[in-house]
Amino acid sequence: MAVDVTGLDPVVAARRADQRARTEALRAEYRHELNVAYGDHPSQVLDIYQPGATATAAPVLVFLHGGGFRRGAPGFNAYHGAPYLERGSVFVSMGYRLVPDLRFPDTVEDVECGLQWLVDHVAERGGDARRIYLSGHSAGAMLAAATGLRATQPDVIHGLVLISGMYDVTRHSDETVNRASPRYVPELWEAIERIPTGHTVIVGGDHDLPAVLPDGEALLAAIQARGGSAEMFVEPDADHFQANRGFITSDGAVAQAVYRMMSL
To answer: How many CB atoms lie under 10 A from the CB of residue 151?
Structure first.
């Protein structure tokens, strides 16, 4: 998985090199299938990782990458699954169409399609279609929240992990958001239609983008007001790109909460 870091800011280059190394280590250790198509578009693909022991009816953690709905790919984000593969979960890094091919929240269509593919096929990879959990970072967290809290398909999401999402969509430009979409709502916490049957974990960094923590707190309060189970973590000494630290570290507080949610 070659990553060209020529001309990048040294901090960005180092971050991408670390992501590459973590992902390559994961692929060396766990069985995997890359670029499994769930639709016709090149971005509608899944990278599927299976735990070391032969899995039977294992819980499934799906991850949606960030990138502002303009960039990103599932292959660069496999390292997020390491703590959960260690505990016996199937891990899926899901791609979705990006601008200009599709804008948020119509992107939810891709997540629904990918989840339906997993419902139909994940048992063949040792996963339990009745225990699918959806996670994401930044734009991926927005997409996961919009899918889990408003999606129209039958309930297949049993828990959410939302890292550094911003849920007031009025802040985002028309380049990335389709305000004419029937799925569009200005503030997600004011338009929740369903609550996952399990738990929701909301995460932000203490030095995150300005909107992340206030939006996370508003979403937390809205879920709890509707009788949902939810908690929020503030990752210490973490900016927007470090807020996933507790999620990708096996002894991190966020990972421990996800273990409990998934009964790992």
So the answer is: 21
